[in-house]
Amino acid sequence: MKVYNLACPLDHRFEGWFASEADCLAQQEKGILACPVCDSTEIVRMPSAPHIAKSSSTELSISKPESTNLSGDVVALTGQDHSQLEAQVQAAFLKGMRDLMGRSEDVGNSFAEEARKIHYKEAPERSIRGQTTLDEAESLRDEGIEVMAIPLIPAFKNTLQ
Ligand SMILES: [Zn+2]
């Protein structure tokens, strides 16, 4: 029996148990081997030293903002920039965020109100950011308004000042 430390492209780490190394390779090739978290079949084998497998658990929370404790800061993405911004965010979360923050208008506490105005064409279309409650962000999403929650990462906040 062989135990391998495996990881997917999103850096989810898990263990796989195989009859042999050949069995592991065969499962990899057939695409049977999938990440238990995101179902990706692009699985790579990690070095088996236990301290390496632990090293990047903090990075995971940065690249997956939905799963972190959100402070309530929310940005609405409107208009054509959306897919472009999304790609940037995926490629380099912090860089993309900084860029987005730089290009969006800070509307502070009137975020939800302003996002609705833009959505219903009562205000010029643009990217905005500001504070709102998670409940409010949820109802904006229900109305079809793209809202993205941003965790406040201290290092990231500092670079904005
Ligand atoms: Zn995964």
Structure report:
This protein is an alpha+beta fold and 161 residues long. It folds into two domains: 2-47, no CATH class; 62-160, no CATH class. 43% of the residues lie in helices and 19% in strands. The strands form two sheets. Strands 5-6-4-7 form a four-stranded mixed β-sheet, with helices on both faces. A three-stranded antiparallel β-sheet has the order 2-1-3. It starts with a strand and ends with a helix. It binds zinc ion. Zinc ion binds at residues 8, 10, 12, 35, 37-38, 40.
Provide tags for this entry:
single chain; 161 residues; alpha+beta; four-stranded mixed sheet; three-stranded antiparallel sheet; 8 helices; 7 strands; 19% strand; elongated; binds zinc ion
Number of domains: 2
**Strand order, sheet with most strands:** 5-6-4-7
Number of helices: 8
Share of helical residues: 40-55%
What is the secondary structure topology, with strand pairs?
Elements: E1 2-7, E2 13-18, H1 21-30, E3 44-46, H2 50-54, H3 57-63, E4 73-76, H4 81-91, H5 93-103, E5 105-108, H6 111-119, E6 128-131, H7 134-142, E7 147-149, H8 154-160
Helix pairs in contact: 4-5
Give the gist of this structure.
The chain is an alpha+beta fold and 161 residues long.
